[in-house]
Specification:
Blueprint: H1 4-27, H2 43-51, H3 53-69, H4 74-77, H5 91-102, H6 105-119, H7 123-129, E1 130-133, E2 136-142, E3 145-147, H8 149-167, H9 175-193, H10 198-215, H11 219-239, H12 241-251, H13 262-274, H14 299-311
Antiparallel strand pairs: 1-2, 2-3
Helix pairs in contact: 1-3, 2-3, 6-8, 8-9, 8-10, 9-10, 10-11, 11-12, 13-14
């Protein structure tokens, strides 16, 4: 019998399949890239060269990990059992709930990811472990692997806040016992990230706020903090020249069509060329050196151009 968990898994696999397909469609080019091979001359070699075997392997590993994780008893592993700390709770019950909860592996993962973010802010250490990509040194490279600690924080904080809301569901309406700890965690995470990646920090703040509301927090308790967060975002944008330039470009990209407005204009052109029906899978024109980062940051215009409005 099909259960809700199966529906979620099917949705995840479908999104992954669409993502892999469009990444390879956007990356297909008539211009040979440096170090790129056309395969070993066989049909299989050509197919593997087109689909770039590494992405296929990563997708397969991701599905395998998802299926394995679905068999784990998350409630036991992360001690996700609701606790009631009412006025009649004994000191022993409070102590048992505290130590059992804070020994959860989630908090070790959270501390590790935040420590990596903090390490990138230390000048001497940042040059040693940091890896620069497109002018930003917010990556860590360990052998063949490179990743952004902010991405690790983004994943783990969702699990940590969900864990907290599950265990404290009876007291989430109380500020100090329910709402304050996850708010403090969000503030620390966003504070470490915001200087390097404002977009990720804003996303974390928005997602955590929505999770706290779903977990039982009161709207009026979050209102003041939300207003302060929005005001902080405005100040960070106004006081940082390149962020302010992005806002100006967003409002009027045609003011500098060959400079800062080039990428937005080319992206909108991809949408216009796709129209309602799209130009067809693999038939994008904009991916041929018109739009940069066509397999990552700017893949959405390519999807709209090839698959049209329904695909977008």
């Amino acid at each position: 019998m099909l259960r809700p968990a199966h529906v979620i898994q099917c949705c995840a696999v479908a999104l992954l399949a669409i993502g892999v397909l469009m990444v390879h469609s956007a990356g297909a080019s008539v211009y040979p890239q440096a170090g790129e091979s056309a395969g070993d001359g066989t049909l299989l070699g050509g197919v593997l060269a087109f689909f770039k075997l590494r992405t296929i392997v990563y997708a397969g590993v991701a599905v395998a990990v998802m299926l394995l994780a679905s068999r784990i008893n998350v409630r036991e592993m992360f001690s996700i059992r609701p606790i009631y700390l009412g006025p009649d709770a004994t000191m022993m019950e409070r102590a048992r709930g505290f130590f059992r909860g804070w020994c959860s592996p989630l908090w070790w993962f959270m501390a590790f990811s935040l420590a990596l973010m903090a390490a990138l802010m230390i000048p001497g250490l940042r040059e040693v472990i940091g890896h620069e990509v497109n002018g930003a040194r917010r990556w860590i490279k360990a052998g063949p692997l490179s990743f952004q600690p902010s991405e690790l924080v983004k994943w783990v904080i969702v699990l940590a806040v969900a864990w907290w809301c599950s265990r404290r569901r009876f007291v989430m309406h109380r500020f100090w016992h329910g709402l304050f700890p996850p708010l403090l965690l969000m503030a620390v995470a966003c504070g470490l990230i915001v200087d390097q990646d404002l977009g990720t920090a804003a996303l974390i703040g928005l997602v955590v706020t929505c999770m706290l509301i779903a977990g039982g927090a009161r709207w009026w308790q979050l209102g003041g903090f939300a207003a302060a967060g929005i005001a902080g975002l405005v100040v960070l944008i106004i006081t940082t020249p390149y962020r302010m330039q992005r806002m100006v470009t967003f409002l009027d990209p045609w003011a500098d069509p060959l400079g800062t407005g080039y990428h937005p204009i080319q992206s909108m052109l991809a949408f216009a060329q796709g129209g309602l029906q799209g130009s067809g899978l693999g038939q994008s024109i904009q991916k041929h050196l018109y739009i940069p980062e066509d397999t990552t940051d700017f893949i959405y215009p390519i999807i709209a151009e090839e698959l049209g409005l329904p695909g977008a």
